[in-house]
Amino acid sequence: MKNKKIYLFLSMLLAFTVLGCDDVLDTKLDDEIPAATAITDNISLKAAAVGLYDVMQSGTYYGGEFILAQELTGGNADATGFQERFTQLDNAIVPPSNAYIQSNWVNVYTLVNASNLILQKMEELQLKDDNSKGTALFCRALGHFDALRQFGQFTDPNSKYGIPVSTKYLDAKSALEVSRSTVAQSYQQIISDLKEAVAILKYDSNRFFITKAAAEALLARVYLYQGDYDNAILYANKVISNSTYKLNTKYNDIYDVEGSAEAILELQFLGIDGNSLTEFLSVSPPEVSADYSSFFKPMDDDNDPRSYKYYDSGKEVYCDKYGTRDSEIDGNAIIIKLSEIYLIRAEALAKKDPQNLTLALSDLNVVRQRSLPAQPYTLADVPNLDAFVNILIEENKRELGFEGHQWFTLVRLGKATSILNIPAFRTTYPIPQNEITISRGKLEQNPGY
C-alpha cells in the first residue's frame, strides 16, 4: 500500500498464527509491543486498520497462493514445476498435510484475529472511527468467508461442517477453545459483519481501500454462495447502478491500469511489499501454468482478447496477468471487480427463475460482448438451466481466470464432481491436520478425510 505506516504491533500480528502451534504462539519478539496494548488512540487505530491490508497480502493469501490454489483445483491451471502442494491441488486430491492449506488457514484467521483486536480495542477505549471499524468488519467477514468456502460445506445450509467463527481477539490459550460452527451460523456472522460495515462505511472512488460499495459487492457474492438469490440480486443492483464503476472498454485494462473504472477493490502491491504470483507464474518453466486444452485453447480459437494475457510458449501457457517476469512483483490482486458482479447477478437471476432466462442471459452477454461483441449467446443456446450453467462456467472461467474463483464456481454450481471426476467429499478441503491435532479433538475433520 502506498504511504502506509505499519506500527510494530503488526509484526506480532503477522507472526501470531491463530489456531497454530503452541511454539509459534508463545514466541517472544525482541522489543515486542504486546498486541493487546498496541492500539491506544485514534492514530494507532488507523494504523492498525491499514495493517489489515498487509495481512491480506500474505504470500499464501491474496499475495499469491490462495489465488493459484483455486485455479489449480478448479482445472484452469496445471502444476508444471516441482512443488508437491501444487501437484496435490492440481489433482484435486488435497491431503490434510498439504502445505498450502496449513499456511492459508493461518492467514485467514490472522486476518480475523487482527480485525477482532481492532474492534475489541475500539469498544474498550471508546474510540470512534467508522472507516476503521467498517474496514475491520469487512476483513473479519472476508477471512471467515474465505475459510468457509475452502474448509466448510458452504453449499449445504443444513451442514454442521462450517468453520470456527471468532468474534473476540484470541491468545494462544483461548484460540484452542474455538470449535466449528454450522454452515448457517457461519453465514450469519459473515452477513451480519458486512451489513454493519455497509451501514457505517462511505462511498468513495478510491479503489485501493475498503468502501461501502466494496462491502455491498462482497455481500452480493456471499448471498450468491449462500443461495439467497433475492439478496444477491439486491446488492448486485446497488453496485451496478453506482456510477462510480463501469466496465472498462478494453478487458485487459483491469490489469494494465491501476485502479481502473472497473475495479471495486484492488489490493495494491509495490516493489517493497510485492506479491509472489510471478514467482510461480513467470519463471521458466513456470511452477503453475494455464491449462492448454480446456482453458486457453477455446479462448485462443475465438480470438478472445481475454486470451491475450496468456502466452503459449509451445510447452507451457504462461499467465501474464501479474507481470511477465518473476522480478515484477507489483501487479495488483483484483479482489472484486464489476464484471464479476454482472456474472453474480446473471447466476442469481437464472437460479431464481430457471424458466425465464432472458434477464440472466442479458447480464451474461454484457460481460461476453465486451470481449466478443459479435458472439452473444441467444436463448436458443440455453434451452434450460443446465445449459445456462454450462455457458456461465465458461464465461466465469474466461472473465475471472487466475483471480481465485474457478474452484468455488464449480463447487457452487454442483459441477465439480463430474467435471473434475472426484468424489463428492473432495469438494471441501480438509481441515489442516496440525490444527486437528493441536485442538485436541475440539475441531472435527471434514467427512472422508
TrEMBL record:
<dbReference type="Pfam" id="PF07980">
    <property type="entry name" value="SusD_RagB"/>
</dbReference>
<feature type="signal peptide">
    <location>
        <begin position="1"/>
        <end position="20"/>
    </location>
</feature>
<dbReference type="InterPro" id="IPR012944">
    <property type="entry name" value="SusD_RagB_dom"/>
</dbReference>
<feature type="domain" description="RagB/SusD">
    <location>
        <begin position="305"/>
        <end position="416"/>
    </location>
</feature>
<keyword id="KW-0472">Membrane</keyword>
<dbReference type="InterPro" id="IPR033985">
    <property type="entry name" value="SusD-like_N"/>
</dbReference>
<keyword id="KW-0732">Signal</keyword>
<keyword id="KW-0998">Cell outer membrane</keyword>
<dbReference type="InterPro" id="IPR011990">
    <property type="entry name" value="TPR-like_helical_dom_sf"/>
</dbReference>
<dbReference type="Pfam" id="PF14322">
    <property type="entry name" value="SusD-like_3"/>
</dbReference>
<dbReference type="GO" id="GO:0009279">
    <property type="term" value="C:cell outer membrane"/>
</dbReference>
<comment type="similarity">
    <text>Belongs to the SusD family.</text>
</comment>
<feature type="domain" description="SusD-like N-terminal">
    <location>
        <begin position="25"/>
        <end position="224"/>
    </location>
</feature>
<protein>
    <submittedName>
        <fullName>SusD family protein</fullName>
    </submittedName>
</protein>
